[in-house]
Amino acid sequence: MLILWVAVVLLAAAVFFKALSSPISKLPGPWHTKFTGLFLKYSEFLATRRLFIHALHKKYGPIVRLAPNEVSFTSLDAIREIYASGGSGYDKTEYYDLFRQFGIKTMFSTLDKHGHSQRKRELADRYAMTNILRDKHLASIRDSAQSFVSKCTRTTSIDVYVFLHCYALDGVSNFMFSPAGLKSLDRPEDFALMEELTYHQSLQKNLLHYYLPQLAPYFPSFLLPRRSPMTDDYVHTMANQQSPDQHSLITRLVREESPLDRMQAAAECKDHMAAGIDTTGDGLCFLMWELSQERSMYFQDRLHQELRDTSPETPLDQMPYLDAVIKEGLRLFPPIPMSFPRYVPQGGRTIDGHFVPQGTIVSCQPYSVHRLHEDVFPDPERFNPDRWMEEKGLAERNRLFFAFATGGRGCTGRNLAMIEMKILLQAVYSRFQTMVAPDMQGCMDIDDQIISSRPKDQTCKLIFKERESVSS
Ligand code: HEM
Predict the structure, then answer these.
(1) Which atom of ligand 1 sits closest to the CA of residue 341?
(2) Which of 35, 264, 373, 427 has the fewest CB atoms found within 10 Å of its own CB?
(3) Ligand 1 centroid – CA 30 distance (Å)
(4) Are 458 and 59 in contact (CB under 8 A)?
């Protein structure tokens, strides 16, 4: 018995000594995070990780120890070092294994730099602005925007959450599989795919699989992560379609000399479909909700004026206020607001002036980066697109704009997302005023998912009223 006690005491002393001698223990943070990451994990299961980290940054500053081997940062130096040093920054952690599709690694879920850059080479040109701006792609997005508007103006109170998800799904699927993309705004069978991809409760189930991989095969069926059989079938069919448009993503992935087999191509496309629906859909939803508030009518009117005064032929990048409104929406409600975890490379690195040993998990989260630099974003909780119109400080604001991440592993779909958002807002706010519907009961708080977020009650009811200048 005595031997057992001695062993326990020695073990505890070793853990204690190891924790206190690590350079991470010298960083700011609550005392318990020197010894355990349990508080962090608890907050993850409660879906409050983002807020837990944000509160710690507010208390301890731009560097916070979250666990004995995990640190969060908010400074520009840290963002550059972690996500952009050497081009694409540090390698991803195994957390991204959760994003494999059909059990296969995609570009997003490839952890190491080398594998990632090889995959990226295969498809990056499809997401270049020159390809997104092709007439065929633009016409298809504009058609979807018109379908969205006609849906929303048919009745008085309309749930835009639903139709914005349809819009985003139709946009990304047409881009990838043209001419066989989805039309979920118009066809009930395609609408079912939007529902399958959108309505799920899978955060805790995914976390259980991540933290207890050895037990995962024995989990009962109600603990299995969400399935999406209709989407899987659709993606497989698309990966094998006979003559897709030459500028679509799938054409590039299955071309004769492509190193990807059909299964890998299907997995890659399914990933982009998932990446493109909630992000663009929820980003637009939070933004339209905010624009529809009484307090934001001035911004809505200013946006309408710009859209009314520009001809339909004006290129989308020549509407500065439209750009400012979208950026401010993504600043305040980043669709992926949570940490993007990375491993410190071999030998350790100095981040924000502090040495961090190799293998430590480090990250920054857009939610905090966009709110904790009050010198760059004064009154940060306030929605104020005008801040992006001021010449002074614009470079600093752009440098700290982190909604799409940064570096070689930043968002590949950024150009597509921006164009989709611009076209939709142009179609709506050039003609209509939107207001919150009287029967809107849902909560629009940011609700965290595995790394993305969505409006808590997944509903957002608005009224569309035609502007007098348009109807007269
Ligand atoms: C407003 C809309 C969007 C936002 C805010 C957004 C944000 C992001 C962020 C923050 C990342 C990096 C995440 C990380 O490192 O953990 C990312 C990666 C990615 N996004 Fe987006 N995204 C959006 C729309 C899209 C769309 C429309 C697509 C494609 C159709 C897309 C495809 C991707 C892909 C493929 C990656 C992985 C990039 C890589 O690993 O190299 N995203 N996105």
Answers:
(1) 16
(2) 35
(3) 32
(4) no
